[in-house]
Write a sequence for this structure.
């Protein structure tokens, strides 16, 4: 680890001001950042610890949803009774991620901003456009079993590792930020992440010093919520693919549906195509499969991860069947 | 128990005598030793290339970094004995030099070493060392090296690489029922919790290394060889070990560099490999390609039995995983052929990992037996019973004790095998497909040399000392029980001291020989002491040698694994719901630690069937998975209900206590039972391990239709 300056934030304004330097970083739970610093993948010269800031509350919002402070831990969020009753898909997603110890430490804002788990991003002896812009992408011709199949570019096929964010995408969550100049803005979660294009090292639309203060969940959508994660081992593993669904069934038809995938793209992948295919569709495995095909029409595999395309379709099918009570 | 009368403690489920020390953090591991004067910290700089030469190392910046005491490279490392010799009978006593040449032999090869006042300073300075290398083309792919692989002559346990009985080719060609299948198993890493770590201290010409090692006398000899100093000048101390699984049989550059560093800076130096470093700087289990050819008559008797294995070792090494060892003694067949071929690649060294050879050999063989049962239309338990033998089929010796058939029969009854439906994909539980699988377990039993010292102290306590190790298996505990019983003392009056070359030499922990070997020596010492008490004897030594095992008999532990697997019809996820292992493993010295050994082995069997693998990226010659987030070992949630049963058995011609090795038997065959259960659940025959969800999708698609 390289030497760095450590600052405990005194106020929102001072934290953001300190973090505007290009080599500064906010730190909250540190569950991802510290690992990356030990490997010298992240080499900040200045850490601004937002631990002292009052961002650890979950509050009712005026519109009937919840406002989740950026420092709320994954454990606290998953266990919150309002979340469990009104947003069960979020609780399920969080509990499907990491381990109890990590969830106790990891925060809501930090989870959204975690970096990819691509093996080549982690191995500093290998080319990686995300870690070292312009060096190339070793995953393209390499062991890309865990990499993305949709929305990515020939410069980077890294997948986003969050489970929580997948549920939030299905719930139309919004991210509230504050910048060094005090200006606040609200960003739909789907717009938080930048497509890799030819600048995969720039992962979000956040400006230097811009801090996630909270995540707002709109009032819970009607319908059955479900998170389904498929991974190589039963616990403590990143998703091969995962699906968050919110689906309303009326007789033998789907009246409304929301679908988001994890493990297949650079961001939680909300699929308008799957949702459109599901509206009015019969509640059958065949139509769930058709929705999956629509969702993955533009997907392509890179060799070792080809299987993610059929697996994502089948996992969506399983989730929708469970959520709608199809035997 | 009557007042004053002691129960015989051997076999009782005694709690670990070191358990309290460990859970309260008072068991001192190698890296935790503190010394007077304080230790400096070392960090290794690994190469970024897999093969080539170090052209130049720029140490300027690192040398001037805060706290730095030493930057060691090929330019200033002291002379050492070159690596090897490769043909040394004890390969774990080879010289293990560091930074002694400009050659890079594999990815992650040590190219510099930094010593500083603190770990953080050493680590920061290590990143400032600039290494320039010339890369050479290397060969990294096992499969493509197959055609040019060599006949190694011998496998690592000393047996010939090839064995042949009768006329296999003719028998296989004419067999009425036969199967031929290619199985592959991946690279695996031992991944112990405690990394490889050493603290080295020099006092005059005396070197003491506190290190994490399964062996004591071998690293002592190896370090002496490396530095060309008398063996008596090296002391190896290894009191507690956080897992080894074979990876701590060799010693590594952590010991060499700590010793060199301590010598130069004139202070103790400690270093622990980082988790990513473990994947390259230590050994791994080779990947394998195994061709199984089994032929039988229509009554299910094997007539032809063939296994060909292709394995990897490092370019400069000769380790040959004994893949076909189990095949040579598991079933009767008049015509037999087993062969090993060795591909020397520019990868890190392969060496032992729990049940070397048998763990992956049985994974393939016992799945192939399932395929044969299918082809014959036989129940898989019946097929195994039909081919049982009382005679070691390749060496023509009777087994001293062999209760494979009993294990299969008892296990089948206890597991509910009669409820199995032979036709795959017949049993469903919601969207889960349910199947049952079985596999045999076998692991050869060996005895090594050991000496123990027993001393009756003035306060009536007994002290037992031997240079044995406890790698977490329970050795301290079982030796306490053996000594207590032999001396007719309560167990709390016995102190066992291990892990120090100042104690009498033993073979250490490995290859399942540890318990039988060390307990035999302790028993001999205590018996001698007990017999001499009346004559005033207060201290005695006792020994055991391989000759104490009656070699007119074949010695092995046996068992049977039964597994119930559930496969999700949509996603291909596999869950092992329950598993039973029935073992005939000689006299059990501690029912609790023995059960733990079996559960650990079975858990690893589940892991090797479903999860565990590393990949080589042939473009770079490196393993892709370099941390425990990407290299998956089984976690609690992967393991359903595990049931372990021991048959009442003692080996009458084996070690004096009649015990057998149990450290590895639990993994042998366990994975195959799971793979066979997946076949019964789905009809998918997985031959490329592990059975991750992606490999089941094609079968599930056909079941959809």
């Amino acid at each position: 680890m390289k030497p760095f300056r450590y600052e405990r934030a005194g106020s929102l304004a001072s934290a953001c001001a300190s973090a505007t330097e290009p080599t500064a970083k906010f730190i909250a739970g540190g569950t991802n950042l510290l690992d990356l610093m030990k490997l010298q993948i992240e080499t900040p010269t200045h850490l601004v610890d937002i631990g002292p800031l009052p961002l650890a509350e979950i509050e009712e919002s005026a519109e009937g949803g919840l406002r989740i402070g950026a420092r709320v831990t994954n454990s606290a969020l998953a266990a919150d009774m309002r979340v469990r009753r009104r947003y069960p898909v979020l609780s399920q997603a969080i509990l499907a991620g990491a381990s109890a110890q990590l969830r106790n430490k990891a925060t809501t804002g930090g989870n959204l901003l975690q970096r990819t788990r691509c093996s080549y991003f982690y191995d500093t002896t290998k080319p990686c456009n995300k870690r070292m812009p312009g060096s190339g992408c070793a995953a393209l011709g390499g062991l890309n079993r865990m990499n993305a199949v949709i929305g990515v570019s020939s410069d980077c096929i890294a997948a986003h590792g969050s489970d929580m964010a997948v549920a939030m995408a299905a719930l139309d969550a919004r991210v509230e930020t504050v910048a060094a100049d005090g200006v606040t803005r609200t960003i739909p979660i789907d717009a938080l992440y930048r497509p890799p294009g030819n600048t995969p090292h720039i992962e979000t639309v956040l400006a230097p010093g811009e801090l996630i203060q909270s995540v707002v969940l709109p009032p819970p959508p009607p319908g059955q919520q479900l998170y389904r994660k498929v991974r190589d081992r039963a616990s403590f593993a990143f998703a091969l693919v995962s699906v968050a669904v919110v689906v309303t069934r009326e007789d033998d038809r789907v009246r409304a549906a929301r679908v988001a995938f994890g493990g297949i793209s650079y961001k939680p992948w909300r699929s308008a195509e799957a949702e459109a295919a599901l509206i009015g569709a019969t509640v059958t495995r065949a139509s769930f499969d058709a929705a999956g095909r629509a969702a993955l029409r533009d997907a392509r595999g890179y060799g070792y991860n080809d299987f993610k395309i059929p697996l994502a379709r089948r996992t969506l099918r399983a989730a929708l069947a469970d959520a709608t009570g199809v035997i | 128990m009557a007042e004053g009368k002691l129960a015989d403690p051997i076999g009782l489920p005694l709690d670990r005598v070191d358990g309290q020390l460990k859970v309260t953090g008072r068991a001192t591991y190698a890296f935790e030793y503190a010394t007077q004067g304080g230790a400096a910290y070392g960090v290794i700089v690994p190469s970024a290339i897999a093969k080539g030469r170090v052209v130049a190392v720029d140490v300027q910046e690192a040398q001037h970094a805060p706290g730095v005491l030493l930057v060691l490279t090929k330019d200033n490392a002291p002379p050492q004995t070159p690596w090897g010799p490769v043909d040394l009978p004890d390969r774990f006593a080879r010289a293990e030099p560091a930074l002694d040449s400009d050659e890079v032999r594999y990815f992650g090869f040590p190219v510099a070493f930094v010593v500083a006042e603190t770990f953080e300073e050493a680590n920061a300075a290590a990143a400032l060392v600039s290494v320039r290398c010339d890369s050479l083309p290397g060969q990294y792919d096992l499969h493509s090296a197959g055609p040019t692989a060599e006949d190694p002559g011998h496998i690592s346990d000393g047996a010939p690489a090839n064995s042949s009985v009768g006329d296999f080719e003719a028998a296989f060609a004419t067999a009425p029922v036969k199967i031929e299948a290619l199985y592959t198993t991946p690279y695996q890493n031992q991944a112990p919790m405690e990394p490889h770590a050493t603290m080295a201290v020099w006092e005059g010409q005396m070197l003491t290394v506190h290190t994490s090692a399964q062996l004591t006398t071998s690293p002592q000899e190896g370090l002496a060889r490396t530095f060309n100093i008398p063996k008596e000048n090296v002391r190896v101390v290894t009191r507690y070990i956080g897992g080894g699984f074979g990876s701590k049989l060799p010693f590594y550059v952590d010991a060499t560099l700590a010793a060199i560093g301590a010598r130069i800076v004139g202070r103790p130096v400690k270093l622990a490999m980082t988790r990513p470093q473990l994947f390259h700087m230590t050994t791994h289990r080779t990947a394998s390609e195994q061709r199984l050819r089994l032929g039988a008559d229509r009554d299910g008797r094997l007539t032809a039995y063939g296994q060909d294995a292709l394995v990897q070792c490092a370019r400069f090494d000769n380790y040959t995983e004994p893949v076909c060892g189990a095949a040579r003694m598991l079933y009767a067949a008049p015509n037999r052929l087993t062969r090993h071929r060795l591909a020397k690649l520019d990868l890190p060294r392969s060496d032992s990992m729990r049940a070397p050879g048998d763990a992956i050999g049985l994974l393939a063989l016992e799945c192939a037996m399932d395929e044969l049962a299918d082809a014959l239309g036989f129940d898989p338990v019946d097929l195994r019973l039909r081919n049982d033998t009382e005679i070691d089929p390749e060496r023509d010796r009777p087994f001293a004790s062999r209760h494979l058939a009993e294990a299969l029969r008892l296990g089948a009854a206890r597991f509910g095998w009669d409820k199995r439906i032979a036709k795959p994909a017949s049993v469903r539980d919601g969207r889960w497909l349910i199947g049952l699988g079985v596999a045999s377990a076998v692991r050869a039993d060996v005895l090594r040399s050991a000496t123990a010292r027993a001393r009756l102290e003035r306060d009536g306590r007994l002290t037992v000392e031997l240079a044995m190790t406890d790698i977490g298996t329970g050795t301290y505990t079982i030796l306490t029980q053996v000594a207590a019983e032999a001396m007719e003392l309560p167990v709390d009056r016995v102190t066992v001291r291990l892990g120090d070359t100042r104690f009498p030499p033993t073979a250490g922990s490995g290859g399942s020989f540890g318990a039988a070997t060390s307990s035999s020596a302790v028993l001999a010492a205590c018996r001698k002491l007990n017999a001499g008490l009346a004559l005033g004897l207060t201290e005695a030594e006792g020994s055991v040698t391989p000759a104490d095992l009656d070699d007119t008999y074949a010695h092995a532990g046996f068992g049977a694994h039964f597994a119930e697997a559930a496969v999700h019809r949509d996603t291909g996820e596999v869950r092992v719901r329950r598993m039973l292992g029935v073992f005939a493993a000689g006299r059990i010295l501690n029912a609790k630690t023995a059960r733990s050994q079996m559960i650990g082995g079975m858990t690893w069997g589940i892991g090797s069937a479903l999860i565990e693998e590393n990949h080589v990226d042939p473009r770079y010659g490196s393993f892709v998975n370099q941390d425990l987030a990407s290299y998956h070992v089984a976690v609690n949630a992967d393991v359903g209900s595990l049931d372990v049963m021991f048959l009442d058995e003692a080996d009458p011609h084996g070690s004096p206590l009649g015990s057998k090795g149990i450290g590895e038997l639990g993994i042998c065959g366990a994975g195959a039972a799971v793979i066979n259960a997946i076949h019964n659940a789905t009809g998918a025959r997985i031959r490329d391990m592990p059975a991750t969800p992606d490999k089941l999708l094609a079968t599930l698609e056909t079941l959809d239709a």
